[in-house]
Design a protein that fits this description.
It is a single chain. The chain is an alpha/beta fold. Helices cover 27% and strands 24% of the residues. The strands form 2 sheets. It has a 5-stranded parallel beta sheet, with helices on both faces. Helix 2 runs parallel beside helix 3. It is globular and about 45 Å long. The two termini are 14 Å apart.
Length: 206
């Protein structure tokens, strides 16, 4: 199934809570304006508190949004590898009703990354994102080799709170800055893209 291109995300992850940004881009589909704000005031959120904000938008979006649980998670790299995906930065995308946004969370497998993923998953589970369909979490290795047991246990705990977890191994070429589309990637990356494409295709025929 060929998925139509859509507007790129332009809201700055570190912008003010009520910043409004246009969504330009030559050849992109016009989707109105983005309005970024906090999901829940920090003082009211249960611990651990996620740093992900909420960015609403009007009009059609891409088939898949890719949200970073923390800085440097790898969402932009995945967006370069998945043609029907767009990175949201550190935001949950929130379409105007009756629209629905498919989202995957992305985090590194170090302690800070996994705790950020746990917080984002808790935010989703709290029911404050009614127009978001979370497909799962992509956990990208932060170092070569096996995951230490404490981190493996934490990832297993997080997996109980999200629909699915995809684990992607360390790729030295990406660390060195090689363009993602030119890197020979492990098969886990292809499986991720296949799984996501299957889910989107099934939605289209439902």
């Amino acid at each position: 199934m060929q998925v139509a291109d859509a507007a790129q995300w332009t809201a700055a992850p570190e912008g003010p809570p009520n910043a409004v940004a246009d969504a330009p881009g030559q050849g992109d589909v016009q989707v109105g304006r983005f309005h970024a704000r906090a999901v829940t005031p920090a003082r009211l959120a249960p611990p651990p508190t996620s740093s992900l904000g909420l960015a609403g938008y009007s009009g059609p979006g891409p088939a898949l949004w890719i949200s970073s649980c923390h800085g440097g998670a790898g969402a932009s790299t995945l967006a370069a590898l998945i043609p029907f995906g767009r990175s949201t930065g550190r935001y949950w995308p929130a379409p105007e009703p009756p629209g629905q946004a498919r989202v995957i969370l992305v985090a590194r497998t170090h302690a800070v990354g996994l705790r950020a993923a746990q917080a984002a998953a808790g935010q989703w589970a709290a029911g404050v994102l009614p127009n978001v369909r979370l497909l799962g979490l992509v956990a990208i290795a932060d170092a070569p080799g096996k995951l230490p047991k404490p981190l493996k246990d934490l990832l297993r705990l997080i997996s109980g709170g999200v629909p699915q977890v995809w684990e992607l191994p360390w790729v030295e070429a990406l660390r060195l800055g090689d363009p993602p589309e030119q890197v020979r990637l492990p098969s886990a990356y292809a499986r991720l893209a296949q799984d996501l494409n299957r889910i989107i295709s099934e939605d289209a025929h439902a």
